[in-house]
Specification:
By secondary structure, the chain is of the alpha/beta class. The chain is built from twelve helices and twelve strands. The strands form three sheets. An eight-stranded parallel beta sheet has the order 1-12-11-10-9-8-3-2. It has a two-stranded parallel sheet with strand order 4-7. It has a two-stranded antiparallel ribbon with strand order 5-6. A hairpin with a 5-residue loop joins strand 5 (117-119) and strand 6 (125-127). Helix 2 crosses helix 3, helix 3 runs parallel beside helix 5 (190-207) and helix 5 (190-207) runs parallel beside helix 6. It is globular and about 65 Å long.
């Protein structure tokens, strides 16, 4: 496992103050500690008020947001790290209380999330609301929200951006037939359901804030999170990857592992399905271990592998892999979903090789003699 093949997976991070949407100093420390990875992909970051809906999650909308992110980017760059910002619109997974300008939520179609609860802006557990289908004008406006967010990411100094097209968020809601029953040019055929995603990618490239080879995208074709999964996902996402191949993107990031829940509505896709139609780098994700990751890379099954939970409790994960050092125990659930401050977030120690330390001590004593 080389430094360039190991990347922290974006894990939603509850350490932005609820009173604002700015990244804070605790986040600066967290990302700085993990700068030795080949590539850092940040937590999901809201591109607009309508796209927000997660307690304490950061935004990329204002000069204050940019200033907060710039501290993080600078800290990572000082350690020779590379960092991409993940651009996020929650769509139907949000709650209207996060949107004082409209008091509503939007999606591809008027189909709510079922079977689980959401949270409102005060942290109360609430039922998911029924979204309003976006108008074509709103889709066009949202494309420009992605463009503006990419511009601000560039201003903050990011090396690139990852468009979040996964986990049942807005773009995923348009891609999947279970959540998109539109009858206009954004629904129905695979080409139409892909149109919104295509327009986002094209617009960011045409704007010029980042070239195509600094823009990645993330998909979860097998995932059930957010009440997702469609009978034609095994066809739809291969088609999408084939279409995206035309742009020369930085990567496609695929959560093909089933550890985050499988919808069981069609066959499970693997990264190899994507590699057959996409010539650029593929990042594999979900349930990775050192051995699995090295095997997948060695076999040509993927180009890079992403780690999420392991990276929380092991800020020096590449060094531990490279030296076969033991891993720290898994971070408990509340450390990656609850705002509990530094505990379990930035207080995980790096590994201390006792044999190496004792050897250095002996060398130091011999020098004194």
């Amino acid at each position: 496992m080389t430094r360039g093949r190991c990347t922290p997976n974006p894990v939603d991070n509850p350490f932005v103050d609820l009173s604002n949407t700015n990244p804070n100093d605790l986040m600066v420390e967290y990302y700085k500690q993990r700068s030795s990875s080949g590539l850092i992909i940040t937590e999901a970051t809201a591109i607009s008020e309508m796209g927000s809906g997660w307690l304490n999650a950061p935004h990329i909308r204002t000069p204050e947001n940019v200033a907060g992110w710039k501290k993080i980017v600078d800290a990572v760059h000082e350690k020779n790290g590379v960092i991409y910002l993940q651009l996020w619109h929650m769509g139907r997974q949000s709650h209207s209380s996060f949107h004082p300008s409209t008091n509503e939520i939007v999606s591809a179609s008027a189909i709510p999330v079922k079977g689980v609860n959401s949270h409102d802006v005060y942290g109360n557990r609430v039922d998911y609301e029924t979204p309003r289908p976006m108008t074509i004008d709103e889709i066009k406006s949202t494309v420009q929200d992605y463009v503006k967010a990419a511009q601000l990411a560039k201003e903050a100094g990011f090396d690139g951006v990852e468009v979040h097209g996964a986990n049942g968020y807005l773009l995923d809601q348009f891609l999947q037939s279970s959540t998109n029953v539109r009858t206009d040019e954004y629904g129905g055929s695979m080409e139409n359901r892909y149109r919104f995603t295509k327009e986002v990618i094209e617009a960011i490239i045409q704007d010029g804030s980042f070239p195509a080879n600094r823009i990645g995208i993330r998909f979860t074709p097998n995932g059930a999170f957010g009440d997702m999964g469609s009978e034609d996902n095994d066809q739809m996402f291969v088609y999408v990857a084939q279409q995206l191949n035309k742009f020369g993107l930085a990567f496609i990031h695929v959560v093909d592992g089933l550890g985050f829940g499988f919808h069981n509505k069609c066959r499970a896709l693997t990264v190899m399905d994507f590699k057959k139609v996409f010539d650029g780098p593929i990042i594999a994700n979900c349930g990775m271990t050192k051995e699995i990751a090295e095997g997948m890379i060695r076999s040509g099954g993927t180009d890079l592998t992403a780690f999420g939970r392991l990276y929380i409790s092991n800020p020096d994960l590449p060094e531990r892999f490279a030296n076969n050092w033991p891993l720290a125990k898994d971070a408990p659930f509340e450390t990656y979903w609850s705002p509990i401050g530094a505990k379990g977030y930035t207080d995980w120690p790096v590994y201390e090789d006792k044999d190496a330390m004792e050897s250095k001590e002996r060398e130091g004593k011999q020098d004194e003699l």
